Each structure stands twice: as structure tokens, then as C-alpha cells.
Queue: 4 jobs
Job 1
Amino acid sequence: MPVTVPCQYRTGKTLGSGTYAIVKEAIHIQSGKYYACKVINKRLMEGREHMVRNEIAVLKRVSSGHPNVVTLHDYFETAHNLYLCFDLCTGGELFDRICAKGNYYESDAATLVRTIFKAVKYIHDSGIVHRDLKPENLLFRTQAEESDIMIADFGLSRVMEEEKLSQLTEICGTPGYMAPEIFKKSTLLVSFPPSFL
């Protein structure tokens, strides 16, 4: 008979929600540390369990390796849900900051984009493609104006094994942010000069 382990976290307010999951604030009971906990309904994910296994594999590969990529601290399951515990980013989404500010000065935007590109380079160097980068998946660590920006939500990401490098042809992501090349299923090759980053 399986051993029942008491839950080590207590969940609080809801931070966001998606098709299969909700994200809640959670406190680790023993340490008192706060996390963001993605609570995935196993019944709603039935037949798509591979997506969660893939997300965990991706996060294990990139966690704690870059200051601008969220870290997966813990994951576990109960009879009804899967739980993924991440860094708690309290500064909100880039999308909301853009809306609140109304605009970004070019130098501020350039600094932000450069930081994001460096994090994306780290992700790519780790053999991962994110496939859903958008302002809603870029979170600020704190409310501070100069807060670190973090790449989050690796639900659509893929591990690209070096020996099996191939072109990705699956249409996925958020339609409003997709490049026309994705809809056309044509190749888009982009290279940046080393000085760019």
C-alpha cells in the first residue's frame, strides 16, 4: 500500500488560470517560503499527460541556470492534481506593465529586450525551444521599477536533442503573437551578430 505523505504546502490566493491549470500562491509550511504553485487538474489533462512530463523535463533542464528564467523548486501529485512549485514573481506580467506605463522609452525597451534575448539564448543553448514567448509569459520578480524580468510558462516548450535536430512544424503558441511563417509552415531563419547580445 502506498505511503501517504502530508502536503508540505498550503495554497492561498489564485494568481492566474489557464485551460488545464490554475496558479496559486503557496507557502512551504516548514520553511515559510512563498512560491507560485501551478495546480494541474489530472482529469482535465487526461490523454495529455505527456505535456506535463515534457514541461517538467524542460524545467529540470533550465531551472536555476539563469537569473531571468523561473526555477522549478518542487513537483508532486495527489489523487486529483499535479503541483509544480516555481519562483513567486510578484511584479506582474510585462503585458500589464506596458499597459500601465502607456509606453517605454527606447533605451528601457532595448535593455528589456536584450535581457530577454540573453535568457532565450541560455534556453536555446540548453536544447530547449519555448514556443510561447509573449508579454503575458514574461513576469517581473518584484513590483520594483528595476525588477528582474523572468521567462515563465514552459507548457508548450520542447526539448531538442542534438542528435535529432529537426525543423519544428507543429503549429502552437498564442495565435495573436504567432509569426506569419508559422501559419504558412515556412522556414524562418534568424541570426544575430555576436555584438547584438
Job 2
Amino acid sequence: MSEFVHTCVRNRTGCITLDRPKALNSLSLDMVRALAQALLAWRDDAGVDAVVIRSSSAKAFCAGGDIRFFHDAGRATPLDGSALLEDFFSEEYALNHLIHYYPKAYVALLDGVVMGGGMGVAQAGPDSRVRIVTEGTKMAMPEVNIGLFPDVGGSYFLSRAPGRLGHYLGLTGLTIGAADALYAGLADHFVPQARMAELAALIEATPGAQLRGAIAAFAAPLRGDAGASALEGARAAIDRHFGMDSVAAVTASLAADDSAFAQRALAAMAQRSPLMMSVTQELLRRGAALGVADCLRMERTLVRHNFANGEVLEGVRALVIDKDNAPRWTPAALADVTAQMVEGFFAPVWPAYAHPLRDLT
């Protein structure tokens, strides 16, 4: 078990606490394995009826995968870090699949930063999930900012957000709060931070089999307190702009709209990887027609191509290693991204029988 993941069972509820505050609970391979080990054990344990996952700090639930590890491992020799990189993504995506189909109530307390890999361990399937946000929630799928793409099942849950909201979130990588998360279907309940201790006491006192109903009753009168959703107010514009057939057409449409919302989206996209925005748009198009397992298999193929291409290594260098915030994207302009470049990311890497996620169903 990881030193950064603490587990226990209380009142027939399995409790998981992410405790790596200095790294905003960024997921390491050991953390992924600890989560999978606990969830697999509790899945078949008749003494556990529900699972609650939370952070030890209100600052962050989970900021994603450990991108500094991605950079170091991606530049290592095949016998060193690169093998661990392969293990990380295969095991992380298998964990995402386990969570999506978890047969017991799965409660995620999403206070603070919830990004990337944090979304992957938050977005359980509709039969089990209870996703709670607060006024401190900062949610995003910002992978295009580091030359990656919305993975950890993002091709599934973003492509199923209302209208073109998933395309907006995936292509801009912008952060949303509680009201927008509720509107986009990425959260279920709002609870003010001031009442989170009260909620924790309720969870501890409630038998696991009754947990979903108890939390819903606790949070239901408070949902309106999350405030107005900016996404709801801009929904018509989002659907119009992000419904375009290409990323270049999206940016042209945004450029013709002088509203503050459109210009903010356009400014964000100007900083992102042109290639990976284009890959993301195609990923979401394909993901809308696939189940969870096939989405994760597709993403696993894209990860292999992405690190071979090097775009993510350049993005992490600029953001985390050198911190110059001046990534040298290849190609540098949307006009230079070709259909062949995008299609190459979806080319099979393994025969179906050898795919590392072949056993997902």
C-alpha cells in the first residue's frame, strides 16, 4: 500500500483518504495500485456496502497524474522509467474501469482541485456514484495544456456531457466550479465547505447500505446554493462554436464573437497544443459511440503515440520543469495540423489479443 493512500472500514463503509498534500494528491503508480487493491478487496467483501474517497486537505482532492514522473520516465531508457510509464497508464485506466462499474455506492468528496486523473477516480458509473462538490471545487480536464489529451475515461464522460460542453471543456482545458460541474453532469450534490464536517459525521454514523440516500437527503436542499452556472448561461454559444467540424473552425467562430466568454475560450486555446486539440476533438467524436472499456483502450493507444510523438514531454517541460510557460508545439499552428497527423494517433499499437487492456469488458 502507498504511504499516500490510507484506508479503513467503518460502519460497513470502506474509507479512502488521499494524503499527498504537497503534490495536491497527484497520483503515483503506488497510489494507483493502493486504490485498486482496496477497491478490489472491498468489491467482494460482504462486510462492505459502500466506499467513500476523500482528501486529507481541502486544497485538493486530486490534481491528476504525477506529470513530473511522466516527463522523467518518458525520457528514460526502455529498461528504466519508460516501463513504469507503461505500467502507470495501463493500471490507471484499469482502475478507472473498476470505479466506473463498481457494484457498491461510491462516494467522492470533491473539495478543492479535481483535475485529470482526479476526475478519473471521481467519475464512477451512474449506478453507484455520489459526487459531492463545494464552493472550493476547481474542476478541469486540462490535458491539452501539457500536450496530452483528456484521458482517464474523458473520451467517455466528456463526450456525454450535454450539447458540446464536453468539447468546450476538453479543447480549452478551462476550470469550472460547483455550479458548472452540476450543470455539466460531472457532479451530483453541492455541500458548502462549512458543512463538510457535518457531512463527514453523517457518513461515519450511517451504515454503508443507507449512505446514498442519507447523503442525497442532506445535500438536496443545498444544491441551489451552488450559484448560477456560467456554462448554462453560455450554453447556446458553446453549442454553436464547439459544434464546428474542425478546431480551426471552432477558433474562427470564437474569433467572430466579441463576448467575454468566447474571447476567454479563444485565448485559452491559443496557448494549447494545436495537434492535441485536434486529436481531442476526434477522440470525443469517436468516444461518443463507444463504451467505457473501448474508450479506455482507445486512450491507451493514444498515450503510446503521444509519448512517442513527444508533445506531452514538451508541454510538461514548459509548465513544470523549466517553467518558462513557452511550449514549442509541433506543429505550432492549427493550419499546419493535417488529418494524417491526427489519424496516426488512433493507429493500433498492439493486436487486439495483446492490448494491455484487452480484458476490460
Job 3
Amino acid sequence: MSLQWEAIVVNALDPDALGRWWAAALGWETGLDEDGDLTVVSPSDSAPDLLFATVPESKAGPNRLHLDFRPDDQAAEVQRLPNLGATHTDVGQGEQTWVVLADPEGNEFCVPSARP
């Protein structure tokens, strides 16, 4: 028996807007799954899709699971992503080599330093 990682599901008040934000942030493509939900897909098909599902309530508290996106240039991404609508956030990380940001609905994600 085996499993293949298909998607990461992101709950959202406005899944279309949040999905399009993530597509712009990652430079990925949008699509629809078989149920008509918005998906964000890696152009190289090298990562799981992001699937955006509607929920009636706002996010409450820190994420139990968050995504890390390793950039080519951390400083450039940490400047670019807030220009798209991300916000800097503190989850108790203190001084670290990564930067914690949140998407427009408050979902935290990290931008680590570039790999050597």
C-alpha cells in the first residue's frame, strides 16, 4: 500500500480571493478541482496542490501546521510578500534565521534563509 501527497487543504472565509493571493505569491497556476473548489498548482507539478475550502468562521489562534517556502533571496521575498498583502507576525519565534509572515486571512507561513 502507498499514498501520494495530493494537496494541502486551506480553510478560508473567501477561498477564491485567498487562493488567488497564494497563486500570485508563489507564481503558480489556479484551477478548479472536480467539486469546483479553487486549487493552486505548481507549474512543474513538483509540489502538492493547495486546495481552498470555504469555512464559516475566521481563523482562531496559531496554525497547528504551517508551510515553509525557501526562497532564492529571503530579503527580496520578505519585502515582496507584504507588498502583496502578507503581514509580519510573531508566534513566539524570537530572533531566528527565518521570517514568519501571515497571508491575508492570518495563516502563518515561514520564509527561511536561502540554502547555500
Job 4
Amino acid sequence: MGIAGLWSNWKVEDKPALFTCCLITTTANDVVRPFHDRMPAILAPADYAAWLEAGTAPKAAHALLRPYPAERMEAVEANPLVNSPKNEGPHLLDPAA
């Protein structure tokens, strides 16, 4: 999946460059709304090029920042092991017991 975001390269005098980024959020869809009022702006694959193209008009880029279709998502309870950065591996994708 692609999530809309922005990045910048900050350069101040003789200091090393600082690269920063952020994810863009939008209004939550029906799947996410029970948990939070915002969600990442998930882009459809057909919209990737328009989002990444520097020549895309600002209004056209803004129109891509809409809630992802709820019918294309599902909510599952996360495995509690994801709560610790000590845990790694594909078993973290297993649903909660």
C-alpha cells in the first residue's frame, strides 16, 4: 500500500543536511472510525504516479487525500507481541488469540 507523505531536505549553513518526512492523514473511514477520527491517506496504486509527480497541480494532489474505501479494509485484533520493540518476526502478523 502507498501512504501519502511529504519529505524535505533541510540545510543550514555548514551543518549536515537533515532529512525529514511526515505521513498525511485524512478523515477516518467506517473501519477506522471506531478507533480514531483520522487515518493515513492511503493511495490507490492508480494514484501513485500523480502523487509522486512534481508537476501535479496542488488541487489534483489534494483530491487524492481521501479516506480509503472501507470495503477494501478489515479490522483484526493485533497480536499483543507488537507492543514491544524486542519482538521481531512474521509471527507478529498472526491475529490475537
